[in-house]
Predict the structure.
Amino acid sequence: MKPFIAFVCLFVASFVAAQKPYFQQHVRYNIDVTLNEQQKTIKGFETLVYTNNSAETLDYIWFHIWPNAYSNEQTAFFEQLNNDTERKKKIKNYKGGSITDLSFTANGKACVIENHPKANYVDIIKVVLPTALKPGDSVTIATPFTVTLPSYFSRSGYADDEFMICQWYPKPAVFDNNGWHEMPYLDMGEFYSEFGNFVVNITVPSNFVVAATGVLQDKNELAAYKNIGLQNATNRAEKPILYKPLSPENATKTLQYKADSVLDFAWFAEKNLVIQYDTIQLESGRIVDAFTYYHNYKNTLWKNSIDYVKDATKAYSSYLGEYQYPVVQAIEGPKNNSSGGMEYPMITLITSPDAKIETLDGVIAHEVGHNWLMGFLASNERENGWMDEGINTYFQFRYEAAKYRHNSVLGSSMPEYLKKFDEKEYLDIVYKALIKIPAPFPIATSSEVFKTSDDYGITIYLKTAIWLYIAELTVGKEALDKAFKDYFNEWKFKHPQPSDLKKSFEKSTGKNLDELFSLLNKKGNFE
């Protein structure tokens, strides 16, 4: 018996050792950046403190330098665009971009930089540390950088006088229990990022309105935005009041933004934006600032946009858990032919034309909802896009049904008389129609596998929403709502994996959900 006991003990010890304790790295950023309006460039200097909370000693850190995805047509980004008929239309006429002038130091010593072994991953570099970073220690890394902005055809860039500054600064890849997650920038397939704190100083021409992740620290500028924004939100039938610079128009201004416990930092700058402002009182009594920024077009539906942001924030707080940040914002951008918007912590870019109230409200709700499903529950969006986009779509459908008896996918194909049904009856009919749409790929398909936007959208967004409707029928709506709130409370500001969602749901419902979660790997429809 002794050899057998020894074997069992060894097996148990190995199993326990394999269950590594959860950890996540942390980054603290200080960035100074200046926009050159004429040259369409930004010039910056970044200092970051990277803390190694893992049990491993790190000799290097993978960095994303995503502006280089726009640098030539052999990058992974362009290869994906060229393989998708719909997205290929975006690059008929464009100007590329890049990031240059990088010179990394770690604790004041020069770092060796190595390219990624994959030739088309030019937007990823390895920063080799002069001194290995031990568990529990931190290192201060600094570099200047210059970004030549592309014309806007994906997420970042410029369009006329609009500047969308997204995925713009050197950024460490995630290191977790599964190792490094260095990944190229893609148009179809999103991100996985470490939580961090940001202090960002943005210098722009004085007549620009800036909207950004975080809280604006300049009291005079913030007061101007709030004063103008409140008047525009209150007097919507009147001609909007536009921002006037607090310093001479030919001068520049530097605005500081601070944001804590966020995955990313994005900012937007444009002249003559209409600002709306209001506050949201959450169930706990906490007050959150709400802003929207939009173009000064006649008869625009954005005149009610502040209501959509407020309603979405309240709805998602009731679905999942209270909004955690001090401000929530939405900004109107240029039309994007393959995206309704793109989310960032505390701010979302909306690129869907405001053709209908229900459409604009639904898109804003979806993108604001990403503060929960990406922002607070920071899953790996590239590998498990369904945990972000798909779960969010399920709640968007609930929001649209409750408010309008509308569905953003089925749109006008839904007969008008269905609006007389109650919310549950309406959603039952919606899902009975949606479940018939061909969906050959399993939900658990990594984003880079998809060749077309249709397959990606149907699988990651739609099929996941249908799966959660099945979950609702399986455990009951009340139990599913509680499970989501428990999941949120357990995993907010962390990096949950699919197995973590399953464990959390099973703990909350008290049920074995093997059969339900096995559907994530099912090919074809759920009929």
